[in-house]
């Protein structure tokens, strides 16, 4: 198919990119948030998010791994509507993670931690897992990511829960 044939129905390359991003966000939400949403708010939900996130990466739900991670790498230094949409998607996801950390602190399953720091660390681990799998073909990346996410969640836990 020609480039015009692909872009034509969307009117512009940018509109095509925004439509692809929106669809990737829907898939991300379906694969990661929806399975975790039924877990008890707080630490249990954070653990469910971590498990679903790593499963999403491990199963290569989309070719090339996490679309958002790849798009962020492509557009992070390019101002415009696509970059802004990616940034909004990341901000929304960070807000979800922060909200769950706050819930865990309020429930007493995490000590008074910096929720933004925990969200940052979980996101950084997921991005690292994606890159290790996609760029380097690391067969241990998901297991390493699982241990790292558990360490972030449980090292902050005042009760010192053992790592699974």
Percent range for helical residues? over 70%
- Percent range for β-strand residues: under 5%
What's the CATH first level? Mainly Alpha
| Count of domains | 1
Low-confidence stretches: 158-164
Q: What's the overall average pLDDT, rounded?
A: 90
- CATH evolutionary superfamily: Tetracycline Repressor, domain 2
Summing up helix and strand content along with how strands pair, one would put the structural category as: mainly alpha
The succession of helices and strands, N to C, reads: HHHHHHH
Instruction: Give the termini separation.
Output: 49 Å
Describe the structure in your own words:
Helix content is 71%, strand content 0%. The protein is mainly alpha-helical. The chain has one domain: Tetracycline Repressor, domain 2.
Structure described in brief:
With 164 residues, this protein is mostly helical.
Features:
164 residues; mainly alpha; Tetracycline Repressor, domain 2; 0% strand; globular; disordered C terminus
Layout of helices and strands:
Elements lengths: L2 H5 L5 H25 L5 H16 L8 H9 L5 H27 L7 H20 L6 H15 L9
């Amino acid at each position: 198919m020609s480039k015009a044939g692909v872009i034509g129905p969307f009117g512009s390359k940018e509109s095509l990119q925004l439509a692809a991003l929106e669809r990737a966000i829907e898939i991300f939400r379906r694969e990661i948030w929806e399975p975790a949403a039924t877990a008890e708010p707080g630490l249990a939900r954070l653990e469910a998010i971590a498990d679903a996130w790593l499963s999403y990466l491990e199963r290569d739900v989309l070719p090339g791994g996490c679309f958002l991670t790849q798009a962020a790498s492509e557009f992070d230094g390019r101002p415009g509507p696509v970059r802004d949409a990616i940034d909004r998607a990341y901000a929304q996801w960070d807000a979800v993670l922060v909200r769950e950390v706050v819930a865990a602190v309020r429930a007493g399953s995490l000590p008074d931690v910096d929720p933004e720091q925990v969200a940052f660390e979980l996101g950084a681990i997921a991005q690292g897992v994606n890159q290790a799998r996609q760029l380097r073909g690391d067969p241990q990346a998901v297991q390493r990511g699982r241990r790292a996410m558990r360490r972030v969640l449980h090292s902050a836990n005042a009760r010192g829960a053992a790592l699974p």
